[in-house]
């Protein structure tokens, strides 16, 4: 960051207009939402000499990282299961229920074509929902983790 924005820019964090409130435990002054000592990992200001592998393992075991992963799984697992069921229902219906799928809906449009186009529509809707969920529920905390990790690993020879 020093090459691009100068030596003073490393400590500068711009407010992000996409987020109105920080994720739980992030962005609060020490002591407001959980202290550095209480969350299970040391922050850059109190860094000792650790290897990069130790720092990454420490971050991976932190409550903040586990929360980001939990939020990710709580969205992705049900969404992927629902989409897979919808896709399999379409394939099974297309191969076994010929009369149902051939039933006309409007003009030359039949149930199979509507369901096939519905597959595309739900793909786009799921992509939009995933991006929105990530932006609202995970990106801020993940970015904070990344900043903390980079601060902790700064100066460590790899």
Q: How are helices and strands ordered from N to C?
A: HHHHEEHH
Overall 3D shape: rod-shaped
Helix fraction, binned, reads 55-70%
- Given helix and strand content, the structural type is mainly alpha
Question: How many beta strands in the DSSP annotation?
Answer: 2
- What is the strand content? under 5%
Unreliable segments of 5+ consecutive residues: 16-22, 28-47
Order of strands in the sheet with the most strands? 1-2
Task: Specify Rg, calculated over alpha carbons.
Answer: 24 Å
Largest sheet: 2 strands, antiparallel
Number of helices: 6
User: On the 0-100 scale, what is the average pLDDT?
Assistant: 77
State the distance separating the first and last CA atoms.
18 Å
